[in-house]
Amino acid sequence: MDTLHIIDHPLITHKISMLRNKDTGSKEFRELVQEVATLICYEATRDIPLSDTTVDTPLGETAVKMITDRSFGIVPILRAGIGMVDGMLRLMPTAKVGHIGLYRDPETLKPVEYYCKLPVDAPSREIFIVDPMLATGGTASSAITFLKEYGVKNIKLLCLISAPEGVKKIQEDHPEVHIYTAAHDECLNSHGYILPGLGDAGDRLFGTK
Questions:
Q1: Among 24, 86, 104, 173, which one carries the catalytic annotation?
Q2: Which of 58, 77, 95, 160 could disulfide-link to 131, CB 3.0 to 4.6 Å?
Q3: 200 annotated active-site
Q4: Assessment of whether the complete model's pTM goes beyond 0.85
Q5: What is the fold, at CATH topology level, of the domain defined by 4-206?
């Protein structure tokens, strides 16, 4: 089963190109991240089950299909993942939002956990882990492991840009987790950054560099 889903759509491709541009400022960068997150979320929720029901139109009753189970959760990996949350909430306004704080040690490139706050009913929800960049995959894999230890069984990973190394890491550690990405890039450089990528997503979102 191929768990990597590359969302090939002209609107997404155009917006990712704008995100890559080093001259795109923080305000526009934040808006673009939200827009792309909305579009990725649209595809990642394609398999949500529908239930039969009826509604009254102005001309009478009719049979329709609607989403009746709205047990979703969004868990951004701090800090850059926060930039994707509002875009997803536009499609899933009833979703609960948790947070996982992980950062990548610049020397070892391994994730270090410093914060976690999840909805108490997270195990009964479909959880979308969000992080703009899937580079080495270590941070995302650790976040998935933590959610599993918490009892979550239904997990998807959403990112803006992925690298082959990160995808391989997730597929080896968590073969059942589906990955949704707007672009799949070439490789990582010696510092663990995606090439060509878009730089440090957190810094560009929050204007810290």
A1: 104
A2: 77
A3: yes
A4: yes
A5: Rossmann fold (3.40.50)
